[in-house]
Amino acid sequence: MQSKSSRWVGHGIYVLIMIMMIGAIYGAGKSINYNWHWDRLWPYVINTDMQDIRAEGDGTAVLKDNKLIIQFDQSDTPQVIQNYSRLTVSDGDTIYLGDTVAQVSQWRFGPIATGLWVTIKISFISLFFAIFLGLIFGLMRISKNHTARDLSLTYVELIRGTPLLVQIFIVYFFIGTVLDFDRFTAGVVALSVFTGAYVAEIIRAGIQAIPTGQMEAARSLGMNYAQAMIYIILPQAMKKTLPPLAGQFINLIKDSSLVSVISITDLTKAGREVVSGSFAPFEVWFTVAALYLVVTGSLSWAIQRLEKRLSASD
Description:
Layout: H1 4-31, H2 42-45, E1 46-47, E2 50-54, E3 59-64, E4 67-72, E5 79-81, E6 86-87, E7 94-95, E8 100-105, E9 108-109, H3 111-141, H4 146-160, H5 164-179, H6 183-208, H7 212-220, H8 225-255, H9 267-278, H10 281-312
Antiparallel strand pairs: 1-9, 2-8, 3-4, 3-7, 4-5, 6-8
Helix pairs in contact: 3-4, 3-6, 3-9, 4-6, 5-6, 6-8, 7-8, 8-10, 9-10
């Protein structure tokens, strides 16, 4: 076993390496005369700016009981504003359509936070369907039925042999047109089908790694094939396949960035849009990378916890 002092030395070296990497990035920015503006980024994550409340027509401002009432010239129904943080008009002022009459202090998600939510949503919906497809086709790959084996082999080889970007275009422009898919649905279908092929091979390998005596023992106890697979083989296979499945699920989250090519405003597309508005490309892309890392790291941590729990139950 390592001594406590050697562990601290190892951690210290790690911290030193990380500091050197951060210093190298900072130095690279200085070498190209780049000025960092992290303050520009925050409104694109969570916007806390005052929101304008505008007049809905021409009229006169009336202040009464802490309410702003705009009496319109052409209508008997006034515009009543009760919730505001600051008024920009006074009692008796003449108001025109579109004028800012008050402001309210509230926060809302910016495009980066909204894009992160879209990425999480499309990734985890695709993850669910990918597991379902992978389990079905993984079982078909080891089936004694030749038709099932041929179909699953065709699916796996066809999907793994073509780029995901091409598959997204085919699903959206061809299959999506025929079946009337919206962009989000087309993205989910493409990601699910693509990842499902890899999951199928992982599950097949996991099942075949279980000794054949396990199936024979289950059948000798009176179980049929389906019961033996559900209660004996698959639980053992899932324990063996968790590490490669974790890697594939992390790849799915990163691959979801490709759906931006069909105008889904995920985290990557939101990043591109924010760069054009903030003129802070390094800050934006470092933030986008960090957010992807948070999502994939959380998934990896959850699967590691599950793996330890399953190992402890043996």
